[in-house]
Amino acid sequence: MADTLTKDLPAIPTTPPELVRQPLILNRRPLGWISDKISEVAEGKTPKWWWALFVPSFLIMVVCFSMVLYLMSTGVGVWGLMIPVGWAWDITNFVFWIGIGHAGTLISAILFLLRQRWRTSINRAAEAMTIFAVICAGLFPLIHIGRIWLGWWLLPLPNANSVWPQFRSPLLWDVFAVSTYFTVSLLFWYMGLIPDLATMRDRAKNKIRQILYGLFSLGWTGSNRHWSNYEKAYLLLAGLSTPLVLSVHSIVSFDFAISQLPGWHTTIFPPYFVAGAIFSGFGMVLSLMIPMRSLCHLEEIITVRHVELMGKVVLATGSIVGYAYAMEFFIAWYSGNPYERFVFMHNRAADPFILGPLWGIEPAPYWWAYWTMISCNVVCPQLFWFKKVRTNLLFVFIISIFVNIGMWFERFVIIVTSLHRDYMPSNWAYFSPTWVDIWQFIGTFGLFLTCFLLFMRFLPAIAISEVKGVVPQADPHHPLGGAKGGH
Amino acid sequence: MADLTVKYGLLAEYETTADILHAAAKVRDAGYRRWDVYTPFPVHGMDDAMGLKKSQVGWFTFCCGATGLTLGYLMIWWMNASDYAIEVGGKPLFSPIFGFPVAYECTILLGAFGSLGGMLLLNRLPRWYHPLFTSERFKRVTHDKFFIAVEASDPRFNDTETRKLLEEAGSRHIEEVRD
């Protein structure tokens, strides 16, 4: 009987090899291996490489706070900014760091809503990166106000003048956006950590670890009644973080777009800033993850495929950024506004070799900054069209560093080149940073890396329970999950 | 010394997600009420296998978010239009348009606290002590093992019957947990 039924049917096609997806975790590792491998990074003897990175990072962090102290005790004159360049490295660094933060939330929230299961291997570290980047970012607006001890006037708190903050100012929107972003990212990160802290608690070999991990895991048991609420809350937080991440960088761009300054007063700024933020954030994620996966031996969890996928995101957002640069330039010309045109041609693009002579104008004082930005952000990521480049980790690492450099220059170009020559030629000036500017910026890398290294050493750097959820053993209908015939 | 502990229930250990899913469906069908499944990660389809209702966390998020939006707008109106009116360039003292970014951020902020707080509240967490923590084998629940615990307080609980049910469902290790 069975013979007659199948005889006339065509052969069932099998999946062609090029369509078989590479597994997210290589080598069919068992569930226990995943927690062993990930927790290992935060257990046992501190490796030498960790100290070799931590000590210099810590010293640079000390430099960062020394610069803050010097600034507080002396005044903002220690920085190179002046009139007309009233914002310079401070706000450049602020936007640079806050942009980096956006990748973490994109990976944890947007990729979660889009059901991109590969996010599980990188979301924890990317979220941690977000939090530390926002800390670095938040430092700059706070110290740039000059009298730092009056920073609390930014908050809606009653003060002796009885004046409240002015809610029509985008600068105040920024205060709310950045502080909300920091708080929500922290909540999201902590919530994701709860089940993994319970894993660390149950593995703890000594009392102190047991107590500390136990305290912060809030008595998590892995109960399915709990998981049910947990997953719903996670989904809701992802749903809240998605519009949040888009709003934060839009509001940061309002700091510029709502002013009347040529070069800033542009409607393309919000989407352009958001794309740039994701671009720079993925650049930083790659710069951190590629060394991390080798140093912590996590190659089977953060696979080449993960790196490749991130490379594709960098390519996509880098191309959007390139489009935004072109459109900004086009609109400056198309608007017919001579001041807009002046900023783009005379302040930014006119280099001394090709465009300057071609247009018959003097080279722009900051032409080198503009063209560094273009080559790092627009040209460099285009190499990711090639699979050979996307899967070569050294190449990806180098390109990610260029992306970071390029995105710093983008903010520098937007801020300084627009400000330094505005409507009145008698007002024009050339900005150069002082040594305090430079060390303040370098110092934040110390702060960032110190936080990140401490995170790697004491917390599970990869979301253990989430990674377990995407391996075949987790699927009750997969043979590796124990499914027998009939499913 | 007399044993002052009371029986908490039976703890059955399972090896794979398929085993635990089928075992949970059996316990559900047997009509137990005070029982739970413990897994290292959320197992897909387990809520149905246990017969759980949809999670109520969304209400907390919604109520907190709505409170955030209202409070945000009230704050802006009261501070800039009522308590100390600030004239800027002849613009209106209050408008939902300029108030939106801040009120929106307040919505997200309170909504996020609502989600996390609602989750913790519904789960009765933090609760640092749990009778199951006395079991040495239960430590692997966050590692690679799957468990079902049926509480002795369940009206249908019967030491031999329940043990038989859990065994038939495929458990190779069942222990009694005392509180």
Can you offer a commentary on this structure?
- The complex is a heterodimer of chains A (487) and B (179).
- Chain A has 487 residues and is an all-alpha fold.
- Helix content of chain A is 66%, strand content 0%.
- Chain A has 17 helices and no strands.
- In chain A, helix 4 crosses helix 15 and helix 5 packs antiparallel against helix 6.
- Chain A starts with a helix and ends in a 17-residue tail after the last helix.
- The model of chain A has no long low-confidence stretch (mean pLDDT 91).
- Chain B is α+β, with helices and mostly antiparallel strands.
- Helices cover 46% and strands 13% of the residues of chain B.
- Chain B is built from 5 helices and 4 strands; from the N terminus they run βαβαααβαβ.
- Chain B has a 4-stranded antiparallel beta sheet.
- In chain B, helix 3 packs antiparallel against helix 4.
- The two termini of chain B are 16 Å apart.
- In chain B, 44% of the residues are buried.
- The model of chain B has no long low-confidence stretch (mean pLDDT 91).
- The chains are: A mainly alpha (487), B alpha+beta (179).
